Amino acid sequence: MNRRISFKTALLVALLVVAVVPVLTVGLVARSVQRGDLLHHVGASNLTLARSVAREVESSLREPSNFIEHIGKVLEDDKDLASQSVELAEEISSTGLFESLFLLDRTGRVVNVALARNAKGSAGDYLGMDFSRLPIFLETRTTGELSRSKVFLSSVSGDPAVMFAAPAGEGVVVGTLGLRVLSDISAHANPDDKGTVIIVSRYGKVIGHPDYSLVRRQTDLGGLDIVREGLAGKAGTHTYMVNGESHLGSVVQIPGTGWLVIVEVPLATALAPVNEIEMIFRIATLSTIVLASLLALAGRSVIFRPVTALMASARQIAHGNYDVVPLPRSFREIDELGGGFRSMADAVKTRESELKERNEELAMTEEELRQQLDEYQSSQDRLVESEERYRQLVESAPDAIVIHCEGRYVFANPAALRLYGADTAAQLLGREITDFVHPDSRQVVAERIKLLYQEHSPVPLCEQQVIRLDGTVVDVEVVGIPYTHQGKPAVQAVLREITERKQAELRIRQLNAELEERVRERTALLEAANRELESFSYSVSHDLRAPLRHINGFGLALMDECGDVLPDDGKMYLERIRSAARRMGQLIDDLLDLSRVSREIMRRERVNLSRIGRELAREHQESWPERRVSFEIEDGITAEGDPTLLRVALANLVDNAWKYTAKNEEAHIRVGATDIGGTRAIFVSDNGAGFDMRYVDKLFRPFQRLHRAEDFEGTGIGLATVLRIVQRHGGRVWAEGEVGKGATVYFTLGQSEGGSMEQIPKG
């Protein structure tokens, strides 16, 4: 015998399910969504940081490669071994880039050596060594171009290093570059989620890590999936295990090196916020179950008492007693159910009278049907008139109107006959529509007809080609709507000839193609001019730097060797010569930076200027801890533009503010954003020396200075560089100031390269 569940138990279970299931469902869905959002956010943040570090590493390798090419060209012009030795020593001491420089003859023998000051051993240990089997020597001799070796452990410093080689006359100059700077970059990257930045060679070895002991041990990460994916050129975010702990890592490849940048964070750290919410959810679920159980047990007896009385009333009605005993007062729904029982009994008594009334209603309905028939006949007459008006409209329409059913034409108005070149409708009716559709348009026509028959809705206007009876091709615009022809599904199409318009569009496209070709020619000429300018800049840099280095080097040697015999005036004059040489070198660097800003290819992305401002403030305070300068950096200052160029612009403005507040005991520098005339402007202000507004038009010109060099050093290039960067972003820059009360420089950013040459707002 089947034992059915009681109403009391069912009520208790139902209350528990209604209370607990929604809480569990919402909690689990929220946890899953939040977990996915959090992992996506952390992955995207780490991937952005990895790309930034990759660009920084790529930039750090560009200077030594340019420098080794420069040394090769210098040594090519200088054939004397003694002079070459002096040149190598000067180059390695003046730049500090390389651990060692070797000059090899055409056979690969070492003929000249220069070692860094902290290098182990002496130059004599390497003279005469045979480097003829060195891969980069062979590559450079074969190609005659700059080459770079794979990563190896330097015998000079014991650190990971790479070699750069460049032609030097008939021989080759080889420089060893230590890669400890990669670990510095990793240590300073500072991921927001307390993660770690790792740089890995193309063979899976760690070459950059905040923990430098892992670099020295050449830790091998080649077995990790994230490393294999990165070496295959697939940038992205992965989850993997390291020493039994799950990690979330993002990987990108450094262009031109095959090296990888990995930004990783323990998965438990990344998911910590979700785990906290999950604990709260468990406590809330348990509390809900307990509360629902108590409420169900308390309410079960209250609900069941009136239900028992209701069951007794139902038994009386089943035995024909329609005098229902009133139910005890209970919930509104149960009271309504009792009233329904009483109404049912009353309804049975009154059924007979209702049937009589319905007979009378049927008689009235018959009369109404006669009236409706008369109205139907009138509507049919009006329909005939409407059809006649429609026929006249179609016959006189200037556009071609056709109807096709089951793939064949069944109607065509006079305009359609003219479009297809027919004399009578018989030349079209009954023929398949595909006979008049150009092959290029048949696929589109078939798809549109399929939609019309299946979805029974109009299709939008489109262009296609039809073939006239004489074989000529005509361009038309077509719109179709569903139609019924003799009880069968059909399509009514309206066609308008657009041949003349298409010919005009073709002429316009031809003119556009000619214009694009002219633009390409002008672009090629501009690119050639840029290449010539870059070559000229490099030549000027090399030709001017060499004598300046000689002046500075020999001045230092003269001071060291003859300083005891020189009078005080002579020492002062010698120091002025060296200071002038350094200023000239700085001026050359600034000019090259200004030229480079104008030539760099721009890339646009969302840039956090507040974060850049804080980094610049921290760098200045760490470099000059003796100064008392307070920075005020607004939060949330972002802009759309090239991150490298915008950093250069903001760095120049912060440098200026730092420099011109040098004589203030309590200096204050502020970076913020404001609204000026409905345009968002970013500004850098200070309470320093300020300037006279009468000379503001000279402020952004190269070499123009409003203060004496003895008071504030500089070359006058910084603000000119800011002007060019802002112009390339389509914005403008201007300044306001007062002597002794500080200055403020504003700039806006537009949407395209170029921009107005106006710096001072009018009005």
From TrEMBL:
Domain PAC residues, every copy: 460-510
Parts forming coiled coils: 348-396, 494-532
Keyword tRNA processing: no
Keyword field contains Membrane: yes
Alphabetical list of Pfam families matching this protein: dCache_1, HAMP, HATPase_c, HisKA, PAS
InterPro entries per UniProt: BphY/WalK/GraS-like, dCache_1, HAMP_dom, HATPase_C_sf, HATPase_dom, His_kinase_dom, HisK_dim/P_dom, HisK_dim/P_sf
Catalysed reactions, as listed in the record: ATP + protein L-histidine = ADP + protein N-phospho-L-histidine
Membrane topology label: Multi-pass membrane protein
Domain of life: Bacteria
Subcellular compartments: Cell membrane
The protein's name: histidine kinase
